[in-house]
Amino acid sequence: MLSIQELNRVARSMKVDDFERQLGPFVLIQRPPDEMTQQRALMLGAKRTIAVKPGQKLDRVELLLEFEDLLVATLPFVEPGQALTVGRLPDCDLVVDDPSVSKHHATLTWNGGVTIEDAGSSNGTTVNDQAITGSRAVHDTDELAFGDARFCYLLTRSLHERLTTGLRSS
Question: Is this prediction's pTM over 0.70?
Answer without folding.
Answer: yes
